[in-house]
Amino acid sequence: MSDPSTLPALDPSRRKGELTAERILDAAETLFADRGYAGTTLRDVATRVGLRIPSLYNHFPSKDALYAAVLARGIGPVLAILGEFGVEDAQRRDPGSVIARVMALLQRHPKLPRLVLHETLAGGQRLTPILRDWIAPVFGRAGEMVAASPGSGRWTPEQVPLLVLAMYHMVVGYFASAALLADLNGIDLLSPPVFAQQTELLREIVTSLFPAETPSTT
Amino acid sequence: MSDPSTLPALDPSRRKGELTAERILDAAETLFADRGYAGTTLRDVATRVGLRIPSLYNHFPSKDALYAAVLARGIGPVLAILGEFGVEDAQRRDPGSVIARVMALLQRHPKLPRLVLHETLAGGQRLTPILRDWIAPVFGRAGEMVAASPGSGRWTPEQVPLLVLAMYHMVVGYFASAALLADLNGIDLLSPPVFAQQTELLREIVTSLFPAETPSTT
Amino acid sequence: MSDPSTLPALDPSRRKGELTAERILDAAETLFADRGYAGTTLRDVATRVGLRIPSLYNHFPSKDALYAAVLARGIGPVLAILGEFGVEDAQRRDPGSVIARVMALLQRHPKLPRLVLHETLAGGQRLTPILRDWIAPVFGRAGEMVAASPGSGRWTPEQVPLLVLAMYHMVVGYFASAALLADLNGIDLLSPPVFAQQTELLREIVTSLFPAETPSTT
Amino acid sequence: MSDPSTLPALDPSRRKGELTAERILDAAETLFADRGYAGTTLRDVATRVGLRIPSLYNHFPSKDALYAAVLARGIGPVLAILGEFGVEDAQRRDPGSVIARVMALLQRHPKLPRLVLHETLAGGQRLTPILRDWIAPVFGRAGEMVAASPGSGRWTPEQVPLLVLAMYHMVVGYFASAALLADLNGIDLLSPPVFAQQTELLREIVTSLFPAETPSTT
DNA sequence: GATGAATGAGGATTCATTCAT
DNA sequence: AATGAATGAATCCTCATTCAT
Question: What is d(CA D161, CA A16) in angstroms, rounded to the nearest whole number?
């Protein structure tokens, strides 16, 4: 994200300001993901960035705006990528690969699920528009993918949205529980081996739910 | 939860006192579940109960204690019931029925999952002991049940905890998303028909994952 | 204002609270009159009362509300008294006595003119409604009084409001300048002798403007 | 005030610089007159000029200095002109013409009275020296003029300063109330017709107070 | 058991100012 | 001359808590 070498020489002063904004976003993302909106203090953010509180206001006009920016920066790219498959993948024989790719994507944005979950618990009051505009379509497309999947014959149309939701929860909840399990059992869910195991598990679960071979007998 | 009709005529003053504590717990439970610990204010609680803030201190010594009491009151009965099956049910042929019963149990305590999820997201810092003492054993027992299930041959021992976790997330996440979906799509996940559908779906999913009859052929 | 001896024994606790509120109003009145709204800080008010800032919020919900209360408490009684004459006095032969009585009234509320003047300078933005409801009628009545005065034949109907305004400014401005002149020349405009002189002057001025005996010839 | 058209072609860069300072003074004058010192923010000033805050510091070393400059620029010319008459006019038969000329002068500097009034209310603490040096002499000269006026026989020497003050307040208060009345009644006191009426009214009032013809009969 | 009053600590935000660019 | 960034101080206000009543 902050890779100066790849960028053509910008006006250095602007560059610096943008970097600071990015660092603020990084700090805020972590804190919001950990503690939620109410539990996060601008003092925490500032301290983490190595600034004084008023300096934050040189980059974001309010705590709310900072939160929105964190969400936008986090959700945007993920949804963009999410939007890419779905068209082609619905036709594939392997729905399990989709969930594996989602996991891989989220592995690079592990704070996002917690961020979204905080919002979800709060009823999305603060940023319902963002959620409405961004998440709803993804759920819709996911439903279409499920419906188009080979093994979807098992499920009634009414079940499809709930099925998507359940898979969503399996994925998102995994990230949500990571911190707690690390604290409780010393197991780091986000460590590569465990993560690979989880991905494999999800793939198997999906495969179970969409038994691709079923139509072969027909 | 606060069901005065079932109580025999108590000494009115004492009963009133208990009722007040109960009413505070009710209000706090709702608010903590909705907004988390940091997002909930004693003012909110007091207003919801129809008291002034200092009165809360006649019943609970601090906000933290109130939170702990809410968690204890919420988690306790559920875990108690959860503890009952497991022994017998592990022997049964139908792991799906277990999850159905959990759903039925949580339907009567719908705020509990959100409460726990808030804690989970926060890393359980505030009340790790409660979680350690209460939740960890349940997970352990659930793992044993899964391992003892007829269809468990599919899963390696390493996968079992992750499998339990995934099912846990499917259940808990469902309650967590209820408020948001109600707000977003107008769908009330907690309405009886949808809830029944979800329960049935989970049962089918579990059945898929533990194909009880399959091994009969082997 | 705070005269406990005349009041029947109230519930002491309530009494105390009301006294505190009154003391806050006193302090705020002085400060708002001296420095205006923006120039007055709650810290100043609290310090002057001998409280900490948050305690102010036990009595007034916001700085704005405190300001409104100060204005209401200050303007209310004055306007009430102002409203009393006008009916009868319009019939009198001596318009100068009215202004003398206004001066006597304001002598007991010397901060009020400065308070109102601050508002006036600010365009009354903050409390236009109060001004509209309270001051406008007084001006209207004053205009009627002027029009009904014996010597009013000199003035055209269009001049009457401007005449009222000019007299208003003579009165109000006197109080506004008091602090400055005390500071600059050491003259205390509010000292009884000077004040009596000013009252007499105003009476003469008004008498000049409404030469009561003139109509006798007509 | 900032009338570029009358200026011969200056060195553009220098001219632009001066213009910027002038524009800052214009903006600040309006804001200080409207909201007083405490109620005016450098952000407001900068926004109104179309600059960022730090740029103001290229032209004025502090908010206080800016305020002083506004006052100096506003008061200076007016006092200069005010100083011109007095000598000659004291001899004239028509004291009403003096006040008419003051009004005409202030019509071109309508913010000045409000600026001064803000200072007056604040006790002149901030800029007492300016007031002492500039305003006191004017009052003194005005007193001399009044004493030298034909109709001054009515007034005792002790009354003269108070009389001057009262007339001062009639004039200054008129400008102070302009904004409020515009807001309240939609009457624009500064519109030419109303202003002419007010000037005429003041002339009549002064004439009443100094009945020039009186000595003729004796 | 309930509450008005008081308060230390801390919340987000604004302000005037400085400095490097 | 203009400005983005940074900041100490102070703004209004809220919070959890205590205490006397």
Answer: 64
Q: Is residue B65 part of a domain?
A: no
Residues D84 and D115 in one domain: yes
Q: Which of residues 49 through 108 in chain C touch D, CB cutoff 8 A?
A: none
Round and report the angstrom distance from CA (A67) to C1' (E1).
42
Instruction: Give residue-wise pLDDT tens across range B193-216.
Output: 999 999 999 999 998 888 765 444
Cβ contacts of B117 on chain A, cutoff 8 Å: 117, 121, 176
The tokens of A123 are what? 């009823």
pLDDT in tens, B129-179: 777 777 777 788 888 888 887 778 889 999 999 999 999 999 999 999 998
Query: What HEC string does D50-115 produce?
Result: CCCHHHHCCCCCCHHHHHHHHHHHHHHHHHHHHHHCCCCHHHCCCHHHHHHHHHHHHHCCCHHHHH
Q: Provide the whole-model pTM.
A: 0.89
Q: What is the CATH number of the domain that holds B171?
A: 1.10.357
Instruction: Verify that A101 and A190 share a domain, yes or no.
Output: yes
- Boundary-marking domain end, from C13, C36, C60: C60
Q: What is the domain extent for residue A16?
A: 11-60
> What residues in B contact A165, CB-CB < 8 Å?
173-174, 177
Tokens for C218, please give them: 């007509």
Chain A CB contacts of B114 under 8 Å are: 121
Q: Do chains C and B touch (3 or more CB pairs under 8 A)?
A: no
Looking at the domain assignment, is residue B37 inside a domain? yes
Least Cα distance to D26 among D54, D49, D51, D60 occurs for D49
Tell whether C138 and C175 lie within a shared domain. Answer: yes
Distance D54 CA to F1 C1' (A): 11
Nucleotides of F under 7 A from a protein CB: 1-21
Residues C195 and C189 sit within 8 Å (Cβ to Cβ): yes
Look at residue A213 and give its three-state secondary structure: coil
B1–chain A nearest CA distance, Å: 22
Check whether residue A81 and residue A55 sit in a common domain.
no
Contacts of B109 (CB under 8 A, 6+ apart): B74, B77, B78
Indicate if B112 and B165 belong to the same structural domain: yes
Q: Are B98 and B210 in contact (CB under 8 A)?
A: no
C10 with C96, same domain: the answer is: no
The pLDDT of C6-25, averaged and rounded, is: 71
Residues D144 and D184 placed together within one structural domain of the fold? yes
Report residues of chain D scoring pLDDT below 70. 1-18, 86-93, 125-128, 212-218
CA dihedral sign, ordered C128, C130, C131, C132? positive
DSSP structural state of residue B131: I
For residue B205, the model assigns a pLDDT of: 93
| D154: its two tokens | 């009515």
Question: Residue D42 CA to E15 C1' — how many Å?
Answer: 8
Whether B20 contacts B59, CB under 8 Å: yes
The residues in B 115-144 lying below 8 A from A, measured between CB atoms, are 117-125, 128, 131-132, 136
How confident is the model at residue A2, as a pLDDT? 40
Within a domain: residue A67?
no
Residue B67 lies in a domain: no
CATH number at residue D18: 1.10.10.60
Across residues C76-90, what is the average pLDDT?
A: 73
Determine the distance between D42 (CA) and F9 (C1') in angstroms: 16
Question: In this structure, what CATH number is given to the domain that contains residue A186?
Answer: 1.10.357.10
CB-based contact, B156 to chain A, within 8 Å: no
Number of domains observed in the structure of chain A: 2
Whether residue D23 is found in the same domain as residue D95: no
Interface contact flag, C165 D174, Cβ < 8 Å: yes
- Cβ of A126 < 7 Å from strand E? no
| Chain C contact present for D38, CB below 8 A | yes
pLDDT at residue number C142: 84
Q: Which nucleotides of E are covered by protein (CB under 7 A)?
A: 1-21
